[in-house]
Amino acid sequence: MILEKLKEALAAVELERNALNDTEAELRSMIARHTGNTVSTSFVRDKDEINLSNLSRAKATSAGERDGIDDVADILRSVGKPLHITEIAERLSSIRNAQVNRTEIEPGLNRHVAKTKKLRIDKFGPSIFGLPEWKNRQPSLAHIA
User: Fold this and answer.
1) Which residue blocks in the chain are alpha helix, DSSP H?
2) Which candidate, 66, 91, 62, places its Cα nearest to that of 76?
3) CA dist., res. 56 & res. 119, Å (int)
4) How far apart are CA 34 and CA 23, in angstroms?
5) Which of helix, strand or coil describes residue 122?
6) pTM, whole model, 2 decimals?
7) Which helix (H) or strand (E) holds 106?
8) Residues contacting residue 101 through CB under 8 Å, at least 6 positions apart
């Protein structure tokens, strides 16, 4: 009896979570349309674990469908700091529910950094990638004072 009630409660929580994720996605989409920014997806932070179930269906640019660069940018945005390519590959694997090797994505990221005029991902060090706007941050000197 107790197990049945727990199962029912978990099912209700899952339905509520899905409804909230859908509502959040709609709100972010409206904000993106009005500001011209890319669509950000919903994130669940539990040890930096990411729930991006609607990621592949969301639109990021006015030109068309999302691509792998958008997925990596969303991961970096959710973490808030540059990541090594192995960490990016692990997070992509958990999002896609399939193994993603760094050798499958690193060449594409390097090509994006080298060839595109409007960077969505930038290189911060050997095999370390982050968002371009993070390079413009001035280091804080508060720890010296």
Assistant:
1) 2-35, 68-79, 85-96, 102-115
2) 91
3) 20
4) 17
5) strand
6) 0.52
7) helix 102-115
8) 89
Dihedral sign for Cα 82, 85, 90, 95, please.
Answer: positive
Local confidence band at 145 (pLDDT 50, 70, 90 cut-offs): low
pLDDT in tens, 45-86: 333 334 343 333 343 444 457 788 999 999 999 999 999 999
- As a whole number of angstroms, the distance between CA 80 and CA 9 comes to 33
The whole-angstrom separation of Cα 65 and Cα 67 is 7
Q: Which of 38, 75, 41 is nearest to 55 (CA)?
A: 41
* CA 123 to the chain's CA centroid: 17
- Name the phi and psi angles at 144, rounded to 5: -80, -35
**Whether 35 contacts 51, CB under 8 Å:** no
Task: Judge contact between 55 and 41, C-beta under 8 A.
Answer: yes
- Phi, psi of 27, deg, nearest 5: -65, -45
Tokens at residue 6, please?
A: 């727990």
140: how many CB neighbours lie within 10 A of its CB?
8
Average pLDDT, the chain: 75
